[in-house]
Design a protein that fits this description.
By secondary structure, this protein is an alpha/beta fold. The protein has two domains: 18-146, Chitobiase/beta-hexosaminidase domain 2-like (Chitobiase, domain 2); 152-505, TIM Barrel (Alpha-Beta Barrel). It is 36% helix and 16% strand. It has helices at residues 2-18, 53-67, 112-128, 166-178, 203-206, 225-236, 253-258, 280-296, 314-317, 320-329, 334-351, 382-390, 400-403, 426-430, 439-442, 462-469, 472-481, 489-505, 543-558, and strands at 29-39, 45-47, 82-86, 96-100, 105-109, 137-146, 152-158, 183-187, 189-190, 193-194, 241-248, 301-305, 355-359, 372-376, 394-397, 447-454. The strands form three sheets. The protein has an eight-stranded parallel barrel, surrounded by five helices. Strands 1-6-4-5-3-2 form a six-stranded mixed beta sheet, covered by helices on one side. The chain is globular, with a radius of gyration of 26 Å. The relative contact order is 0.10. The structure holds acetamide. Acetamide binds at residues 307-308, 359, 377, 565. Acetamide is lined by residues 307-308, 359, 377, 565.
Length: 566
Amino acid sequence: MKFKLLAAFLLLSSYIQAQNVNIIPQPKSVNISTGQFIFNNHATIGVSDTSLIKLADHFRSEVAKAKGLILSMSNNEATSLIDLVLVNTPQATGAYALKITSQRITITSQNKEGIFYGLVSLLQLIKDQPQGDGTNISLSACDITDSPRYQWRGLMLDEARHFFGKQKVKQLLDWMAYYKLNKFHWHLTDAQGWRIEIKKYPKLALIGGIGAYSDSSAEPSYYTQDDIKEIVAYAASRFITVIPEIDMPGHATAANKAYPEFTGGSVAGYPNFTFNPANEGTYQYLANIIKETNALFPAHMMHLGGDEVAFGVKAWSLDTAIAHMMQRKKFEDVGELERYFFKRMTDTVISLNSKILAWDEATGSDLPVGKTIIFWWRQNLPGQLHLALQRNYEVVLCPRLPLYFDFVQDSGHVSGRKWNGVFNRLTDVYNFPDRQTPADELNSKLIIGIQANIWTETIGSERRLDFMLFPRIAGLAEACWTAPELKNELAFNDRLKASLKNYDSAGIYYYNPFDPAYHPEAVDFPPRVKEPKVIKYSRHHTSKKSHGKTARKDKRGAGRSHKKRK
Ligand code: ACM
């Protein structure tokens, strides 16, 4: 009996295996049938609509890069071997069907996103296959229908702490597209650097762009407006929306270095961290910056930050002009002033017909429902998520645990953050949000998606950026896309294992969770090891105290001028 059960189980699991294909994220439905499509240079592409030619061209160049095969376009859709067809049946954005028979490959969708994602799935199948004899690749006949779980499938990159530049960002966008991620949140300003050219205020880039987290005098690094347009167009051709973040009223040190007339003052550890809310000029200055920035990003979405103002807000309490303003306006505390400031700046965004995006601190700022998206990042404050939903805000889930990719991912790693000893393994990312989020919140229609954030205080090189991103980006993709009832971590691990060769051939320095020694941890800034306390006993018995004092002084001297995000 036992034997029969085992045999049945093995049969079933081999059937499930056979019904699968190596695509990440796992598609909604996959049926393998008999037969093979032989993919080679003869595989012409036809389109039902000229608006699809660009997508076909993108696919052709990816196939040429991956396999050296040169595909041609066909003028006759009916006789082409790969057929891209836009249909009228209503479908979710990004949904598609991919059918492979021994004769033909057909991708259908109601929208261009769907055709693009069908091509991405096909590309993954092609990359998964070894080159056959000569240049023939055999693809199993199959029927795939697919659609995303979430419409917001995001990744945030912090280029204020360390700057990576256009080429790396484009590579990142390529991988986002490969994993069907569609929102690139670009953290362009912070205490350590201002990375976007603003023509009206050139010193923001030229002076505010000087420095990085690891080197406060690093050459100015920033994106010109032409660079930004290039990146936005590059992303758009991959169906990725780019959202800029101009952080305010905190995290403003770099801007204040360029235009000190708008600083909100300093407190120990947080010099010039905020903008000055009592100076009317500040609002006009920031409105001008918002206008110029908004014009560069066709998505009409602006992230205004709004996080961690509390770090620098003590300086507001010490400023007499700010105290007068608070009296005039009858504000009870600086929190009320902070909300006033944020509301005024977000009104500017609304007046430009753009949506406001903000970290979860903004939940209390009385922002307009329907025009605001809240990014819930403080997993230790579930009440913020609850409140945002209660107030009917759309929400993107990006809690530190498990979606901050600057966190350590393996117990053996030494560089990166932890939260009370907890860190973010691939498995934690993969299983988000279903295991961690209360069901009533998870089922809320207001949760529009999820996003991983890569803060770069400990990431100063492309190598380490890769190491922190790959393969967690693959886990993120499946968390964003695949329906919860279809998620299967063992099957995901098998697909991921089989696809690591693609990272190798792209020269990605990734963490291999199946073989942690494969690439040793990439460490850019070795964490400072605490000196063991050496207690010297002098004859006068005074050295213990003075040792402590010296150690504290050294720490301050060598310390960074700006602290990490919490
Ligand atoms: C954040 O990590 N301060 C949003």
